[in-house]
Amino acid sequence: MTQLDEFYAAYDRVLQKWPVEVESIDMSTAHGTTRVNACGSADHPALVLLPGAGATSTVWFANVAALARHYRVYALDLMGDVGRSVPGETSIGSVDELLDWLSTVLDGLDLPTAAICGHSYGAMIALAYSLRNGSRVEALTLLDPNGCFGPMSAQYLLHAIPILLSPNDTRQRRFVEWETGGRELDSDWLDVLALGAAHFPKSKTIVPKRPKPAEFENFGVDTTVLLAGRGKVHNAARIESAVRAVLARARTVVLENATHHTLPMLPAAEVNEILLS
Q1: Nearest-5° angle of CA 77, CA 74, CA 36?
Q2: Are 127 and 225 in contact, with CB atoms under 8 Å apart?
Q3: CATH assignment of the domain containing 137
Q4: Which domain holds residue 255?
């Protein structure tokens, strides 16, 4: 078994932890085939889940049982990132193409509108998409959105440099252990994260710029921002203030015991409650 095979085996083990029936859909786009793991009744309103970088769609294993009772859930593997989405000959090369890719996926799923929830890098995509395509977003939930309302901390970036320069299994595990304060996370999912970082071929990451305050004028999407009180990506209180400065009507929630990389798995019950309220 190759190291890439080990990654796919870990991915499948985590997907098997989903306590609901899962339909795996491969959606063709101009940039390749996007894997969508779906669950919940087709009669329910749609909820699209965008994971953090490297986390894959499987990361929602502790959330989908509750969410699927109220939504038809569509969890995406981000194009160009680790997972079972398969890039085509033309990679995504700009933010415009990244957002068009998401529109194509929604079109292919026959979703003129949907609620969207993103974590970390997925939150950056979700916010950028909502600012440009607000009529298609019924509600927006951002889980500890880095780079959306303020800068990431110098401490976090300093610890991330070794992974960015030369990612490997050990460095990824140590980084997550540092950020989470040694919290016990699902071992199979940690395998996905670490093996993906070390061995999965990835495209250049396309990062939406932080929106300027003027871009939030006339933004009418119902928005919730959930922040990790013990996270090391940024200062939660400062980001909460920054959110309120540009989105006065947004709901902000600080989960005092959460860190950036424990979300959305821990604390799952609180995350689920927020998504469902």
Answers
A1: 40
A2: no
A3: 3.40.50.1820
A4: 3-276
Alpha helices in the chain (DSSP H): 3-15, 64-68, 95-108, 121-132, 154-165, 169-180, 187-199, 236-246, 268-276
pLDDT in tens, 167-187: 999 999 999 999 999 999 999
Q: Please choose, from the candidates 153, 149, 156, the residue with its C-alpha nearest in 3D space to the C-alpha of residue 210.
A: 149
If you search the block for the tokens 């401490």, which residue do you land on? 155
- Residue 270 exposed, middle or buried by CB count within 10 Å (0-12, 13-18, 19+): middle
Distance CA 19, CA 15 (A): 9
Give the C-alpha separation, 264 to 260, whole Å.
Answer: 9
**Cα(38)–Cα(273) distance, rounded to whole angstroms?**
20
Q: Which amino acid is at 66?
A: A
pLDDT for 39 = 98
pTM of the model: 0.98
Considering its fold, how many domains does the chain have in total?
A: 1
